[in-house]
Amino acid sequence: MLQAFGLGSPEEAINTQLVNGSDTLRILGVVKNFAWYSLKEADKPFVLALNRESTTFFAIKFEAESDLSPMNDYIRETYTSFFQGNPLDYFFQEAYFNRQYQAERQFGNILGIFTVVAILLASLGLLGLVIFSCSRRLKEICVRKIMGASINSIFLLISKEFMLLIFIASLFGLPLAYISCHQWLNNFAHRISLESWFFLYPVIILLIISLMTISFQILRVARSNPADILRTE
After folding, report:
1. Please, which residues bridge with residue 17 across strands?
2. How far apart are CA 164 and CA 145, in angstroms?
3. Domain residue limits at 180
4. Helix or strand or coil: residue 107?
5. 158 class by beta-carbon count within 10 Å (0-12 exposed, 13-18 middle, 19+ buried)
6. Based on the domain organization, do 201 and 160 belong to the same domain?
7. Does pTM surpass 0.70?
8. How far apart are CA 187 and CA 6, in angstroms?
9. Rounded to 5 degrees, what angle do the CA atoms 141, 145, 147 make?
10. Rounded to whole angstroms, how far apart are CA atoms 14 and 9?
11. In the list 23, 102, 172, 222, which could disulfide-bond 154, CB 3.0-4.6 Å?
């Protein structure tokens, strides 16, 4: 507001008079910018003025409690004592603000469901790929065990191939994720910056899920008896 009217600093603006039609307003104080509307909108010049003839809402600040019934009863009794015959209609400011982001919450819920489904399908596909790969390399694994290879070395030999595939997939996926998040945040005048750990954590979680998916199958093959397998081969 100070910038829009060229009123200088907050100290200089005190006691300055503003003409609004037939009304003359005197500045009593200046507050910091705050987001009254959705964070998608930029800060707008804002004036808080008391008009005793057309006051429509009263704002009441209170400490959050588990039981709001006593407070509601007290407010209702106080309101009725001053405005008899007028019904009390109230709402919580938090609920008013939350309604402005209802679309984003729905989008987040839908995206979360699709993400879980995608991870489950990818894990099943990865498990099938591990089973197929181990079955084709079963003779090789047995020969390595006979030659003295440990279970840990066999596990690392097989798992590193799949970890490499996940790493390559991340190289393609992370730029797309960054571009998508950046474009979505551009819809907000007030937005956060994209930090590197926003994209590092999903990769770590993906690696953990992948290891949990393939570990049982790889260890089962690595612990198998080479004599039984080579006899059938």
Report:
1. 26
2. 24
3. 101-232
4. helix
5. buried
6. yes
7. no
8. 29
9. 115
10. 9
11. 222
